[in-house]
Design a protein that fits this description.
mainly alpha
Length: 179
Amino acid sequence: MKIFHTRKQLLAFFMPGFLLGIVYVNFFAVKYMAEPGIFSTYFLEQYQSVDIVAGEYLWYLIRVRIFPFLVLAGLVLTKARKAAAVLFLLWTGISGGILISLAVIDMGIKGSILCITGMLPQFLFYIPAYLVLIWYAFIYPGSLWNRQKTVFISFMMAAGLILEIYVNPLLVRAFLSTL
């Protein structure tokens, strides 16, 4: 298929997932909207008063950031590489659509700004690492895995973790203090 040989395939799989996430929240998850969630005033006030212990937070981030990355990397190095990349893009799109929709429904435009604040600055490092891995899955065997890709991905993921531990909580707290 020609779509696997252009850069548009990343959006061709992410955007339908994003739309599906938005549709899901607006049409199928309406009954759950009355329940308090992560965008409730109570939860956001609790976040401002919690002290984040860097060591414990690091282990949490390894579970939610590094482990899925390693699973995807392992799948990309098998014959299921394209299927794994497509499923990852769809899943990421659905998750993003659900998150943004819930934030906007609960908080309005402030919710979408909170989501962006919550992703900065670490996602500026995570996204390129994932893109290298996914792009490799789509263009293999046109490109082989090499040490440069490994070093780049390792550096980007490590930098993302450090920023998420030390910088992101400060940014989110600063934004929450304006609400």
